[in-house]
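User: Here's a chain of 224 residues. Predict its fold as tokens.
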Amino acid sequence: MIVDLSHEIVAGMTTYPGMAPPRVQVATSREDSAARLSAGVSFEIASASLVGNTGTYVDAPYHYHRERADVAQLPLERLVNVPIAVVHAFDVPAVTAAHLGDPGALWGRAVLVYTGWARYWQTPRYLDLDCPHLTADAVEVLVNANVAVVGIDSLNIDDPRDPDRPAHHGLLGADIPIIEHLTNLDRVPVTGARLVALPPPVRGMASFPVRAVATYEAETTYEA
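Assistant: Prediction complete.
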């Protein structure tokens, strides 16, 4: 099975309050290209202008720590074919260490936190600042468990009202990338799936959209 964990990027959409929406424009039209090619042959080239925090995206350590890896320097082993552990925290406002379960089961995994917030995507509710997020004690467990990457299907992995930003500061400070605005985590088994979530290797970028995908064998069982 293949499950797409990414939201589509659509021109004019809002991912996070205050962020500029993406723009998609035609750079070379089919009509222009057809004028210089053989009969019946044409192509189109488009351009996209967007902030790194658009759609479903990865935050590199550089996002919060100037001396650490940017998007282009992210270790591929943290983002390719990584075993997944899904944490079920549906409608939980604050995901604590207790919600994570046995830390030993998280070691080296892509920990994806399912809160159900993605069901509000592209509605005013999604942009509310009372979104589900990780608490500082949950971050401590994840860092100590040496997880590969942490993702969440919410507006922010931190409480947007908390200036300390413990999840961003702590996880990225431990060189653990973050993926925000995931979707379809309800279709991924708790264990047995693997993650691929690759951004293009753009130097100097702290965040960039990814196509995050979970794969697993059809007979893999779900757990609540």
